[in-house]
Amino acid sequence: MAFTETATRPGPVDRLRDALPKLVLSPTVAIVAIFVYGFIVFTFYLSFTNSRILPQFGWVGWQNYENLFRIRAWDTAVTNLIIFGSLYIIICCALGLLLAILLDQRIRAEGFIRTIYLYPMALSFIVTGVAWKWFLDPGIGLEAVVRGWGWESFTFGWIKDREMAIYTIVIAAVWQTSGFVMAMFLAGLRGIDSEMMKAAQIDGASTFALYRRIVIPQLRPAFMSAFVVLAHMAIKSYDLVIALTGGGPGTATELPATFMYSYTFTRNQMGIGAASAVIMLMTIAAIIVPYLWSELREKR
Amino acid sequence: MSTAPSVETGATAAPAVENRSRLFQFSPARIVLYAILAIFCIYYLLPLYVMVVNSLKPLSEITAGGMMALPQQWTLAPWGSAWSTAQVGVEATGLRPYFINSILMVVPAVAISTLLGALNGYVLTKWAFRGSTILFGLLLFGCFIPFQMVLIPMARMLGLMGLAGSVPGLVFVHLVYGIGFSTLYFRNYYAAFPTELVRAAQIDGAGFFTIFWRILLPSSGPIAVVCIIWQFTNIWNDFLFGASFSDFDSQPMTVALNNLVQSSTGVKEYNVHFAGAIMAALPTLLVYIVAGRFFVRGLMAGSVKG
Amino acid sequence: MGFLDIKQATKTYGSVKVLHETNIAVEEGEFLVLVGPSGCGKSTLLNMIAGLEAITSGEIAIRGRSMNGVKPADRNIAMVFQSYALYPNMTVKGNIAFGMEMHGIAKPEREKRIGQVADLLQISHLLDRKPGQLSGGQRQRVAMGRALVREPDVFLFDEPLSNLDAKLRVDMRTEIKKLHQKLGTTIVYVTHDQIEALTLSTRIAVMFGGYVQQLGTPKEIYDNPANMFVAGFMGSPSMNLFPAKVVSANGAAAAEISLANGSAATIPFAGDRMSASVGRDIVLGIRPEAITDRDGADRNSKAIHIVEAPVEVTEPAGSDTFVVSQIGGKDVTGRFRADVAVKAGDVFPFAFNMEKAVAFDPESEQRIA
Asked: What are phi and psi of A189, to 5 degrees?
């Protein structure tokens, strides 16, 4: 073949060819550098300034953070996040695991049932919010329906109740995401070596013991993934609150995400808004960074 | 061996405990099992049922406490109203213009982020260099940050770029924050793609783009479908960026729906709200039902397993 | 200067040197096998010849032209991979044509060459199939076809038979050997299977720990291993290696060995090559086929010596029976005729063919004589 005679010294064309992979990656790198990390730095900086309606650069030190923790609404938002987050994660995991185990019993029409459990995942939180908002509305929803069926004293007005409204958010959020958690656990279950299951059966383990002693301990990675995903979704929860309760009644269902938005864009307290965003980022980073670290290290 | 690497982790494979005889045998335990599964089906389907039946009945039937009942008088009027005449914000335009905004936003954002993700995944797995894993980690972390962190500077940046309050502006924002996930998908997929194929192609004389175009891309169908579905759902369903960076005439569907439902003027037309909600849900739902198999596989293949 | 010249080639990853200064000159038409356990550096060396991995220092040249910095595609080489690496989305024909297409060879010429190669390898009927529809052996042929059609200066094979089942592996081995004899091409072939190395090669490079331990013809490697590693690695069952002491008996050098029942025996060496080593501790190496029953011993050998030793285990293997005894605390296997009446516990005469014995230094593990 006649292609043996080529220059051995790398010319400009060769060097361009060698740099090509990095060149292809560079737009993404630039975008992430500016729009993720650059912006994080910028917002971080803003949280130490006297910014109000627009970014300003007067340095005020920790003052925004001090103010933030004095604001009652922030306190409510953080408390709500703890309640919402822990219930959301626990219920989703429990329900997801239960459904996954039930679906793993050689169910007929498994694919069909799985589709039904999973479809809420495809919906917007706004749609979910609208559906549950009116379904839980005492005037026309569940309460009115049950009363219409003859149970005149039935009350279910959580969504209008300052104490209970946060739990309606849990209900709607669990409805939306538990199917997804189920899918994660199901994948974990299917990944377990079937010979080990056979061995356990030969050892005389009951179905219950099989799951409790053999299967569930091996689902640790799935639990980890589910926890990380759910925790980060809880912290970022914004759309659902807006659509379901609008943060109300009053400020009863404010979460950090809605707090940040309203302080930054409607109350013109950009410095405080930025401070609250920084705290959200730190919380998420505390969960995500160790996870990503371990995942990417394993891969090597 | 050299068939396309599959992302399937066995979603449809045989369950772990082999026991065929159970299949046709209805013990009491099996009946309870199916009953529980059926109850959960009802739980997950109930809100959808509520939305559908109430979008097809006159308002009076809902306010009279008939939310769970089938319509006594079937009507498509709420749908017509939600589509073209309902008051969204200030104007009585219905949701139609916003639906179109969403389409105009989602198509280019999905197309570009998927293509870039594929190229990135290709570079990060088959042309890995010193520090590429760290780079990928940084990219991935960007997927998980609370977007509140970028709202303020992004608003300014869009202004500087002349994209503030426009659909192209939203496309740009979604592109920026969508690349991480599309890269993740393709990276994980290509990581399982035999490197020997790339080496063989190199020896055969194929260059960087030829290898991508002729060798990897033809085998990327499954993951492309997963990535497109994921991006489509996320971008279509987004509310935060839409609410933050759009004007009245560039709002996406989710924001418009929220305005429709939250507007405090006049009577609350629940049936119209439900019709609007279904309209906002329909594209993603349709995608999910048509291509759901791939979606589930994709989720199971480790959308979140880094 | 050889056809393919490897001069002082090294490879370092970070601070780890995986290939130490290596010199091999391959003549045109040679079949060189790089053999060794995994991690010995053989695949690294092959990839460096292919240009898939950069050379850290030294030089690799083909036809006198330095290949340092030359892209794989421009080296005029072809490679057959362990997984065959057939492009799954292309037909067999597409796979074979791809390299020619990339090098801008006109379509009629491509068609002609594909036809020739397909005839040669008997894969004409498979040309329109996808790799997924082929059996392992067929894929192997296609992979070779893809390499052959390029008419390269050097063929590189990276463990091409290790994914095949045992029977097919033997058939394909023969086929590769025939192909080499017919086409006279230059081949560098990597394997961890010492039988493949012995049967296929014209020369073997035994590698371990990033060094070429020995480079030579199969016969040299087998009969005269340079050190204990090569002795143990090549041949199956592997060469017996056991401690012995060189003593002087009747004016000639002999090996004193200790048997399992506590007694000692002396066996005279053939010739006088060990005379200078009297008094030394050595490791004696004798292949199983040089330890036989009395009647099975090589009649042409002038140095057959009988040692009565206790039998520990017998392993009938059909054509032969392997008989194990302990010498110097090591299991030593002899290859007896199948119908010899011997059983565990017997004290039985073992015939040592000392013409085939080699001696190693126990410290350096290098060959003494």
From this structure: -60, -40
- Which chains have 3+ CB pairs within 8 A of C? A, B
Residue bearing the bigger pLDDT, A16 or C349 = C349
pTM, entire model: 0.82
pLDDT tens, position by position, C148-168? 998 899 999 999 998 888 888
> Residue B14: pLDDT band by 50, 70, 90 thresholds?
very low
Measure the CA–CA gap between C77 and A4, rounded to whole angstroms.
Answer: 10
Convert the pLDDT of each residue in B196-234 to its tens digit.
999 999 999 888 999 999 999 988 888 888 889 889 999
- What is the C-alpha to C-alpha distance for residues C80 and C356, in angstroms, rounded to an integer? 37
Residue-wise pLDDT tens digits, A96-119: 999 999 988 888 888 889 889 988
The answer to whether residue B249 is domain-embedded is yes
Q: Which of residues 265-304 of B touch A (CB under 8 A)?
A: 270, 273-274, 276-278, 280-281, 284-285, 287-289, 292-293, 295-296, 299-302, 304
Which structural domain, as residue segments, surrounds residue B22? 3-54
Sheet of C347-353: strand order equals C291-292, C347-353, C304-310
Put simply, the chain A residues between 14 and 53 with a CB less than 8 A from any chain C CB are 14
Instruction: Read off the DSSP letter of residue A87.
Output: H
A295: three-class secondary structure by DSSP: helix
ipTM at complex level: 0.85
Which has more confidence, B9 or C354? C354
Q: Which residues contact B219 (CB under 8 A, 6 or more apart)?
A: B4, B5, B193, C88, C89
- Would you call A10 an interface residue with chain C, using a CB distance cutoff of 8 Å? yes
pLDDT given at position B295: 65
Structural domain count of chain B = 2
Q: Are A277 and A102 in contact (CB under 8 A)?
A: no
Choose from C70, C87, C92, C103 for mutation: most chain B CBs within 10 A: C87
- Residue C22 C-alpha, separation from nearest chain A C-alpha, in angstroms: 22
- Give the whole-number percent of chain A exceeding pLDDT 90: 27
Confidence of residue A151 (pLDDT cuts 50, 70, 90): confident
Q: Residue A279: name the closest of A50, A99, A40 by CA.
A: A40
Cα–Cα dist B144/B233, whole Å: 17
Tell whether B67 is covered by a domain. Answer: no
A40: enclosing H helix or E strand: helix A39-46
Closest CA of chain A from C186, distance in Å: 16
- Using CA coordinates, name the residue in chain C closest to B218: C89
Residues 6+ apart with CB under 8 A from C70: A6, A8, C51
Q: Nearest C-alpha of chain B: how many angstroms from C363?
A: 41
pLDDT recorded at residue A1: 34
**Whether residue B194 has a cis bond before it, omega within 30° of 0:** no
Q: CATH number of the domain that B156 lies in?
A: 1.10.3720.10
Chain B positions touching A121 (Cβ under 8 A) are: 233, 288
Going by pLDDT thresholds of 50, 70 and 90, the confidence category of residue B6 is very low
For residues B146 and B7, state if they share a domain.
no
Is residue A62 assigned to a domain? no
CATH number at residue A150: 1.10.3720.10
* % of chain B residues with pLDDT over 90: 33
**Is A89 contained in some domain?**
yes
* Shortest CA gap A67–chain B (Å): 19
Q: How many domains does the structure of chain A reveal?
A: 1
Residue A4 lies in a domain: no
Structural domain contains residue B229: yes
Q: Do A292 and B43 touch (CB under 8 A)?
A: no
Which of B189, B204, B210 to mutate to test binding with chain C, by most C CBs within 10 Å of its CB? B204
A48 located within any domain: no
- Which of C55, C62, C71, C102 best probes binding to A when mutated, by most A CB atoms within 10 angstroms? C71
